[in-house]
Amino acid sequence: MGLDNVGHPTTAGNKLRRKAEEYLQEQFSAQPLRTEVETQKLLHELHVHQLELEMQNEELRRVQVELELSQDKFTQLYNFAPVGYLILDANGLIRGANHAGAKLLGQDRQTLVNKPFIRFIADSTGKEAFSKHLESVLQQQVILCCEIRLSGQEGSLIHGRLQSVVVNSESGKCILTSIFDITESRNLADQLQTAHDTLEDLVAERTKALRQANQQLTQEIENHKNAEVKLQEATAEIRQLNARLKSENIQLQQELTRSDNFGEIIGQSPAISYVFYRVDQVASQDTTVLLLGETGTGKGMVAREIHRRSTRKDRPLVTVNCTALPANLIESELFGREKGAFTGAHARQMGRFELADGGTLFLDEIGEMPLELQVKLLRVIQDGEFERLGSPRTIKVNVRIIAASNRNLEEAIKAGQFREDLFYRLSVFPITIPPLRQRLEDIPLLVRYFVAKFNKKTGKRIENISQTTLDALQKYNWPGNVRELESVIERAIITSKGTALQILDRFEIFREHGERDTQDFKALADLERDHILQVLQKTGWRVEGEKGAALLLGLNPSTLRARMRKYDIRRQ
Questions:
Q1: Ordered DSSP codes for 536-555
Q2: Strands, E, within 406-503: which ranges?
Q3: CATH 1.10.8.60 spans which residues of the chain?
Q4: Which of 18, 84, 480, 515 is the most buried (most CB within 10 A)?
Q5: Helix 557-566 to helix 514-538 angle, to the nearest 10 degrees?
Q6: Cα 397 to Cα 378: distance, rounded to the nearest angstrom
């Protein structure tokens, strides 16, 4: 039963009451007159029925009030919701909108009514997408979404996400559509996409550069494949990578050698590294140094390096080759002469000791110095004084002596050709320069160094050195040592055509005696053992890490440990 605005029964309620009264009248007319008791009973039933009707009316009034309150709340929620809502008909005409929806489209709520929603879509793509969206919502009867661009206030563009569903209304089916403004999130997404695209471009550019570099490296590897053609595919790949790593290591070691400022001394083998270590130990001192080694091993370069690293580096390094001067002129060259000191002495001349005052005097091939001059040399070394030829005046000098010899001076002492006391004065700090046959692993470094040197000298562009060439050079005994290797490379640079080094010399693999093989091996082993021991002591017996001995030696830590076991090197 319905209720009016003040809680009275509506027309529908009156009709129901009249039907009840008509029913009662029919009952009274159809039956004979009742007794008083029956009448009282019937009146009582009517009274009960009336009470029930009034209770139902009261319940209906309460429900009506609740419905009206709910409708008011719904209307307020709908009108003032932060999300834009539109009510559309099946053709997409706007039948209603809340405040947020109207504000989003830049219109008044009243002016939106009966306008096609498609008019507010900014582009044809969005209009087509909305039409399909509307059709799908009507067909599927479920909540569906789509994203389109809308024209907002003052021509602004809004990225909107539509969420639509069919609802039943007092006037038929309609479509309830909510509009979410996702402009900010879309802009952020666009910015993110732009950044991603930029990153992709950078990655593509870097990948292209790396690919080009890889192609160049691959080309270099191909230049070393001649000796590996018949190997299996897996072995060939490993050898290619190994050749590549060796090439890079050679270049790196060469740069490290140069950056370590060892000047012309090229190498990284244990034997030459021990020489570097000895040079570092003595260079800053004023100690007399004796350099021992075969002809062509680079004793002169070591002498220059000691001087360059000393505190006397700003003063001259004066060299005297005892084999290049006649015996009768060595004394005047060393100590100087006065005018008329001997026949032909037409002018006064300063000696090499005076020229080297405050600096270093390098006496090369000291073993060839005559015995009579060795006494005078011993006096200069001991007392720092001498007299010029033809003069009684004593001259004081401050000179550091570096001597060198390719002879066995101890054998020369036994033969009476060299003074023992002078030997002990000279050999305060001996350094033995190893022959090239004891450091064959340095040959690739030396070859590349000499190739670069003679490329610059001759204007050639020799760039490729095959592994076959390096293997052949490493199998040769090199009796002339580094000097012989330098001559071979200079000759090859001149005769080579193209960019590949072609060595026409034929080398024989030989050894002088089996005994010398054993001596060379023992000497190299002793040098390597001493060098490893010195580096371990320097690093506090640390093997691995940035400050470990393995890194300083250029070895893998496991390789270093294996050599420590081999030479029985243990921390005390």
A1: HHHTTT--SSTTSHHHHHT-
A2: 429-432
A3: 437-566
A4: 84
A5: 120
A6: 14
DSSP symbols for 330-395: HHHHHH-B-TTSSTT--S-B--HHHHTTTSEEEEETGGGS-HHHHHHHHHHHHHSEEE-BT---EE
Structure token pair of residue 133: 């969206």
Within the chain, all domains assigned CATH 3.40.50.300 are found at 271-434
Query: 437-566: what CATH class?
Result: mainly alpha
CATH architecture of 81-181: 2-Layer Sandwich (3.30)
> pLDDT tens for residues 484-529?
999 999 999 998 888 899 888 766 544 444 444 445 545 556 667 8
Tell whether the torsion through CA atoms of 504, 505, 508 and 511 is positive or negative: negative
Which architecture does CATH list for 271-434? 3-Layer(aba) Sandwich (3.40)
pLDDT tens per residue, range 136-189: 998 988 899 999 988 877 777 888 889 999 988 786 788 989 898 888 878 887
Q: Return all residues near 506 (Cβ < 8 A) that are at least 6 apart.
A: none
Range(s) of the chain covered by CATH 3.30.450.20: 81-181
Report the alpha-carbon distance of residue 517 to residue 536 in Å, rounded: 28
Residue whose pair of structure tokens reads 């101890």 in the numeric block: 410
Residues 6+ apart with CB under 8 A from 246: 444
pTM of the model: 0.47
Q: Which residues contact 324 (CB under 8 A, 6 or more apart)?
A: none
